Structures are given as structure tokens and as C-alpha cells.
Amino acid sequence: MTRGPVRIDLRMTGYGALACGTLVLGVLVAVPVLLLFGVAELSVMALAHMPVITLGALALAGAVLVPTALVKHWRGYGAAGAVLASFMFGAILWVWSLAFTYDEWGLLAVIVGLVLLGVGIVPVATLAALLTGAWNTLALFGVLALAAWACRLLATRLAASAGADMQRRLFGGRTRPGEEQDAATIEGTFTERD
């Protein structure tokens, strides 16, 4: 005797569904808040070491990027290194901004800053530094932002230079294949149509 598929009804109704939905919603809200609180506490622990980390990152970027920018065949690697240095300075700025905002104004200001597309924590930290008179922190925020911007600009210039050098090596000084053809050769390749 063959039986059909067994169906089990797992629908919740009434107060059980309400309680389960409330529990799921609570977990969905609590997990990001707890993660944010943990990240904020961890960044506050690193706050005391941020000036040393920043100066070390600047020294490392200078020691690595200057030689690669000076040697013609290494400029492509220098461009990649400059992009990575830019991300490093941006990450340090973001974590430092998060920690400073949390330390000065609390978790609510951090949430407001993160709601502004995640990047808004930097302007909130800058405002906190201005209003609390933390001029050294404000100056280091500026140095990090300038370093990130300068590394992006350097990466663009190095990549353009490396690309032009690659074209010269591949095409023997021409910018495109066939560029050395004279006008008579070019005229002979065209045909007229009626």
C-alpha cells in the first residue's frame, strides 16, 4: 500500500507567533548593537596607541613608496602600494574617529555617525574634536585625511606613468600601433564608395 507524502503543519498562530516574531526581531536588533558596542570598546582601547600607529604608518608608507616611485620599472608596484597606503590611512582615520566619538560623546553619537553612510563618523569626530578643544586629535585627523588623499593622487600619477612607460616599451615610442605610417600609405588604404 502506497501512501502519499507526509505533511507536518508548523504554522504558528496567535500569541506563539507574536512571541517568536518579537524574539527574532529582538535578536536582529541586538546583535548589531552588541557588535557596535564591542567595536567601540575595542577602538577605545586602541585610542592611546593611535598616534604611534599613525606615525608608523606614515614612516612605512614613505619608506616603501618613495623608492618605488623613483625607479621607473617599479612605478606600477608603487601605484598599488599607494592605493593600499590610502586604504590604510582611511581605516586608521575611521577607527580613530569611532573611538574618539565614543569616548567623547558616547554610543548615540557613534550610531548617528554610522547612520550617515558609515563615513559620517569622521565628520562627527571632527565636530567633537572642535567642540571639546582636542586640537592635537583634530590635527592628526587632518594629517590622516591629507595622507589618504595624497596617496590616492600619487597612485593615479604613478599608474599613469607606469602605463605610459609600458606603452613605450611595447610599441617602441609610439602611442598606438601603426602610428608611424605616412599620409601616402594611409591614403592608399581607403576606398571610395558611391
Description:
- It is flat and about 80 Å long.
- Residues 181-191 have low confidence and may be disordered.
- The N and C termini lie far apart (83 Å).
- By secondary structure, the chain is mainly α.
- It has helices spanning 15-46, 50-70, 75-105, 107-115, 121-132, 135-171, 183-189.
- It has a domain at 47-173.
- It contains seven helices and no strands.
N-to-C CA distance = 83 Å
Number of strands: 0
Q: Helix amount, in percent? A: over 70%
Number of helices: 7
Instruction: Look at the structure and give the mean pLDDT.
Output: 77
Overall spatial form:
flat
Taken in chain order, the helices and strands follow as: HHHHHHH
Compute the gyration radius: what is it?
Answer: 29 Å
Biggest pleated sheet: none
Structure classification: mainly alpha
- Unreliable parts: 181-191
Strand content: under 5%
Please describe the topology of this protein.
Layout: H1 15-46, H2 50-70, H3 75-105, H4 107-115, H5 121-132, H6 135-171, H7 183-189
What attributes does this structure have?
7 helices, flat, mainly alpha, 194 residues, single chain
Summarize the structure.
This protein has 194 residues and is an all-alpha fold. 77% of the residues lie in helices and 0% in strands. The protein has a domain at 47-173.
